Amino acid sequence: MATGRTHRPATRSRGIPEATVARLPLYLRALTALSERSVPTVSSEELAAAAGVNSAKLRKDFSYLGSYGTRGVGYDVEYLVYQISRELGLTQDWPVVIVGIGNLGAALANYGGFASRGFRVAALIDADPAMAGKPVAGIPVQHTDDLEKIIKDNGVSIGVIATPAGAAQQVCDRLVAAGVTSILNFAPTVLSVPDGVDVRKVDLSIELQILAFHEQRKAGEEAEAVLEAEAAAAAAKETGKGPDGDVPAVMPA
Amino acid sequence: MATGRTHRPATRSRGIPEATVARLPLYLRALTALSERSVPTVSSEELAAAAGVNSAKLRKDFSYLGSYGTRGVGYDVEYLVYQISRELGLTQDWPVVIVGIGNLGAALANYGGFASRGFRVAALIDADPAMAGKPVAGIPVQHTDDLEKIIKDNGVSIGVIATPAGAAQQVCDRLVAAGVTSILNFAPTVLSVPDGVDVRKVDLSIELQILAFHEQRKAGEEAEAVLEAEAAAAAAKETGKGPDGDVPAVMPA
DNA sequence: TAATGTGAAGTTTTTCACAGCG
DNA sequence: CGCTGTGAAAAACTTCACATTA
C-alpha cells in the first residue's frame, strides 16, 4: 500500500518481507496487551489468535527476526515486545508534524495511539491564519509559512498530511524539500515524491468502496443461494435423494 | 487487510482478485478527475500514472472486468467510470452509520468523500447522553440505546466504528446482531465477527509504525552507503580503478 | 512432549513480452 | 502503427507438515 518506489532494489539488507513488516505492529499491540496483564509467555497459537492471524504465519514472520522463542514453551512476552519495538524503530523518538488541522487533523492530534508508540506530535501546521496560535490537543497551531523552519528545528522526518486534496501535493513538496522522508497521506490524491521518500496513504472512501464491493457480492450470493436451494429441492424431488454436504455444483459450460 | 474470513472458499464466482478490487477505487478516482476535465479517452499508461501504479498491472486489472478498451486508442473515460462504479456496487445507495462521535467520528461525518461515492451517512450514534440531539455535520447524534432500531429503520448494512478500543467489540456485536454485515473499524482492536461479516480496519498508529521501520532502515543505509563509498574510494586508490555501476558486493560470511 | 522454526508445496500477485486488433 | 489484452514467467506471500529441540 506504500506508494513511493523505495529502497535498494535487490541488494541484500536484512530483508524482512513487506507483508511481515505490516504485521509487526499488530503483534506488538497484542503483546503489549499481554504485557499489561503481566502474562509472562505466550504460544504462537495464542498470540496469533489475539492478533487475528494464523499461527503458521506468525511463526514464519518471527523467523525473519530471529529465533526468539523456546520450543515446547512459547515466546517471552517482554523480550518479544522489545525485539519487535527495536525492529520497527520504536525505541527511538520520532517527532512528527501534522499539516492541515481540520476535523481530521485535530482528531489525529488528539489520537492517543501515537504518543504510546514513540511518536511525538512536534507541531501542528495549518494554512488558515485564524488558526495560528490556537491550541489543539494542547499544541498551538502554527502557520504554513513557517513549515520549513519547523521541520528543521525539530528534526522532523515524518509528516502527516491531512489537508484538502487540492493542497496535498504542494504541502508534500515543501515537506520533502525541507527534509521529510516519510509521509502519511490522508488526502485523497496520489502524491508524487522523489526516490527515497516513502508515502503511505489512508483513504477512508476507498475502504468503504471495498466493503461495498463485498457487500454487493453477498447480496448476489444470497440470491444465488436461493436459486441453488430451489434447484437442490427440485433435484431432491426428482431423485428422492436429499441434499447433502456436497456442493450443488452448477457447472458452467 | 480485511480481516473476516470471508465468502465462499473455492466455488467460482466472477473471481476478481482481491488485490484488483482494492485498486478499483484508485482507478475510479483518477477517472473521475479526468471526467471532470472532460477528457474523453485515456491510455493505460496515462491512467496508470494518474493512479500511481504501472500500466501492465492496470491492464491486467481491467482484463478481469472485461474488454472495455479500444486497441490503438485507450479507454473511454465515461464508460470506464460507469463499469467500475457498477462493479464496486456504487451505482446503488449505501446508508452507513458511524458509531462513536469523538474527534474522529466527527471528522468522518464531515468527510466529503463519502457522499460523492454513493455512501450516505444515515445516522451518527454515540454513547454519551450529552451528545444526543446535537447536530454534527448537520446530522443529529443519536444515543446508543437506539442502535438496533436505527440500523433496521434505515436498512443499514455498513457500519463504521470510531469508538475507543474498549467499546469496539461490544458495538461490533450489536451492529452485527442488528444486521450489519460490513464494518470499517478505526478502533485499535482486533474485532471478532461471525462468518459472512467483513471487517476492514484502519489503524493510524500502525501506518506510522510501518513508516518508522522504513525510516530507520534509511538511516542505516545512509551509514552503510558512506561505508561503501569509503571502501570503494579505498579500493580505487589501491587499484587505480574508479568505481563503476557494479555493486560493491560486501559478501557476508 | 509440546511448541518452535523452517524447507517445501501451494497460492496469489506482479511483471514480462508480444500477439492481435482497431 | 499504437495500444490493449493476455498467456507465461517470475516474485511474493501463505500454508503445510514435520524434524528439531528445550
UniProtKB/TrEMBL annotation, chains A, B:
One Gene Ontology cellular component annotation? cytoplasm
Entries under Pfam families matching the protein:
CoA_binding, Put_DNA-bind_N
Q: Name one GO molecular function term.
A: DNA-binding transcription factor activity
Instruction: List the subcellular locations.
Output: Cytoplasm
- In this entry, the residue ranges of the DNA-binding region are 26-65
Swiss-Prot/TrEMBL GO biological process terms: negative regulation of DNA-templated transcription; response to redox state
Keywords linked to the UniProt accession: Cytoplasm, DNA-binding, NAD, Repressor, Transcription, Transcription regulation
Give the SMART domains listed for this entry: CoA_binding
| Predominant location | cytoplasm
Q: Does the keyword Transcription apply?
A: yes
**Which residues take part in binding NAD(+)?**
G100, I101, G102, N103, L104, G105
Identify the domain of life: Bacteria
Domain CoA-binding positions: 89-190
The job of this chain, per UniProt, is described as:
Modulates transcription in response to changes in cellular NADH/NAD(+) redox state.
Family per UniProt? Belongs to the transcriptional regulatory Rex family.
Subunit comment: Homodimer.
Which HAMAP family does this UniProt record tie to the protein? Rex
Q: What is this protein called?
A: Redox-sensing transcriptional repressor Rex
